[in-house]
């Protein structure tokens, strides 16, 4: 993988796997829905999960694309009766662990090392979300797609002789969700990138031939590898 140096909250992941309740979910099932009480912190051991929000016009916006060792769920600790505003849908059969938020809070309060790792992880997660919004607001739909492709190469990229293979299958509908736009718009932009030989698509796998072409179009400022992720 391209991103070997990405920060991972290893102690928190170990805690959730050790103390959490194990769950197995199949593709298409949901971990939680909007309106559910945010009671659990989850750790994804294996598989893939989309965190999504449904827009008023019926479009789906995927805010996070999670894979192995991702932490998600009730992240706003020390809040009472907070509800989820997003839903978590399984993209690829997964194994995960859920741990009561109140118990997790108590553990953090009594363990300084875990607390510092948690704060560091939250800081990175906030910066990721801010940079995603910046790219969308400054560069529009095209910038959103280019930004998503760059982030996917960092999160799932494998270097090959042909460029960087994004080693996960994505439909154009899912790409549209990650960009907050329609499938038709993504179809057109991907077609343009293929004509320019910037990318190729084969059986839902995307290979980026010219990553610098994508970076130039959004004035990429080379964020740290921790921030430039699709997670």
**What is the β-strand count?**
10
User: Strand share of the residues?
Assistant: 25-35%
- Share in helix: 25-40%
As an assembly, this protein is single chain
Q: List the total number of helices.
A: 6
Task: Give me the CATH architecture of the largest domain, please.
Answer: Sandwich
User: How many independent structural domains?
Assistant: 2
Give me the strand/helix succession: HEEEEEEHHEEHHEEH
Q: What's the N-to-C terminus distance?
A: 15 Å
Find the structural class using helix and strand composition.
Answer: alpha+beta
Calculate the mean pLDDT score and round it: 92
At the fold tier of CATH, the topology name of the largest domain is Jelly Rolls
> What are the low-pLDDT stretches, counting only 5+ consecutive residues below 50?
none
- Using only C-alpha atoms, the radius of gyration works out to 18 Å
CATH superfamily of the largest domain: Jelly Rolls
- Gross morphology is globular
CATH class of the largest domain: Mainly Beta
- Largest beta sheet, briefly? 6 strands, antiparallel
Structure commentary:
The chain is 40% helix and 28% strand. It is α+β, with helices and mostly antiparallel strands and 231 residues long. The chain has two domains: 10-127, Jelly Rolls; 133-217, Arc Repressor Mutant, subunit A (Orthogonal Bundle). Strands 1, 2, 3, 4, 5 and 6 form a six-stranded antiparallel sheet that branches. The protein has a four-stranded antiparallel sheet with strand order 7-8-10-9.
């Amino acid at each position: 993988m391209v991103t070997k140096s990405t920060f991972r909250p290893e102690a928190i992941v170990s805690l959730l796997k050790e103390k959490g309740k194990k769950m197995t979910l199949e593709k298409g099932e949901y971990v939680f829905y909007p309106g559910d009480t945010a009671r659990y912190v989850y750790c994804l051991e294996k598989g893939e999960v989309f965190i999504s929000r449904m827009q008023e016009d019926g479009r789906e916006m995927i805010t996070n694309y999670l894979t192995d060792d991702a932490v998600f769920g009730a992240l706003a600790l020390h809040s009472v009766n907070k509800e989820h505003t997003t839903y978590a849908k399984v993209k690829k059969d997964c194994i995960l662990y859920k741990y009561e938020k109140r118990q997790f809070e108590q553990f953090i309060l009594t363990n300084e090392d875990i607390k510092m790792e948690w704060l560091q992880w939250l800081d990175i997660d906030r910066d990721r979300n801010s940079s995603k919004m910046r790219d969308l607001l400054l560069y529009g739909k095209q910038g959103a797609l280019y930004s998503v492709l760059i982030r996917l190469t960092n999160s799932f990229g494998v270097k090959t002789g042909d460029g960087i293979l994004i080693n996960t299958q994505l439909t154009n509908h899912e790409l549209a969700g990650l960009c907050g736009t329609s499938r038709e718009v993504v179809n057109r932009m991907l077609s343009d990138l293929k004509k320019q030989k910037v990318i190729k698509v084969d059986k839902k796998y995307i290979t980026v031939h010219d990553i610098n072409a994508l970076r130039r179009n959004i004035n990429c400022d080379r964020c740290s590898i921790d921030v430039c992720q699709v997670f």
